[in-house]
From TrEMBL:
UniProt protein name: NAD(P)H:quinone oxidoreductase
Domain Flavodoxin-like: 4-175
EC number: 1.6.5.2
UniProt enzyme class: oxidoreductase
One MF term in the entry's GO annotations: NAD(P)H dehydrogenase (quinone) activity
Gene3D superfamilies in alphabetical order: 3.40.50.360
Coiled coil: none
Origin superkingdom: Bacteria
TM regions (residue ranges): none
UniProt keywords, alphabetically: Flavoprotein, FMN, Oxidoreductase
């Protein structure tokens, strides 16, 4: 199976922490991972379109900006029309993740907003089911729509145990679906 692409934009490190936790989960399942940034200002290499086309699945995340994705991510998808016209992402599994500074900072709406370009590309969305105990227990981040983190006003990028467990579960589901679709 081709590698799974974990693609993100992070400003203060919280979304990067989520991306790395999801990537660790994917690797723990024995799958290869491409951990990439949308922009060239991240801690990991910048993604290229061929990696997006060639990946077996996609985990995609950005910080929350007024309940929407960061403009860098929006710009990235706005430049993907050539891939969309050729249908090169159709039926690839995908999941989303985000971070905000407050519990009511728009995480859930951002997760839904992140899903829109993926659905337009024909991708298959993977969420977090309620059989993941951390989803019911969390007092920080996490939603059925994807993984999230609440950094607080001090921009703490340290994930809570519940947030880590939700990332791990999301990574496992993404790998499992990618394997089923690639068999």
């Amino acid at each position: 199976m081709a590698p799974i692409l974990v693609l993100y934009h992070s400003r203060s490190g919280s979304v990067q922490a989520l991306a790395e936790e999801i990537a660790d989960s994917i690797e723990a399942q024995g799958s290869d991972v491409w951990l990439r940034c949308i922009c060239d200002d991240g801690a990991h290499p910048q993604v290229n379109k061929q990696e997006l086309i060639d990946c077996a699945a996609l985990a995609f995340g950005t910080p929350t900006r007024f309940g929407m994705m960061a403009f860098q991510a929006k710009s990235f998808w706005e430049q993907s029309s050539d891939i969309w016209l050729k249908g090169q992402l159709i039926d690839k599994p995908a999941c989303v993740f985000t971070s905000s500074s407050s519990m009511h900072g728009g995480n859930e709406t951002t997760l839904l907003h992140l899903s829109i370009p993926l659905l337009h590309h024909g991708m298959l969305l993977v969420g977090v089911p309620y059989d993941v105990p951390a989803l019911n227990a969390t007092t920080t981040g996490g939603a059925p729509y994807g993984a999230s983190h609440v950094s607080g006003l001090d921009n703490n990028s340290q994930l809570s145990n519940d947030e880590k467990q939700i990332c791990q579960a999301l990574g496992r589901r993404l790998v499992n679906l990618a394997r089923k679709l690639n068999d």
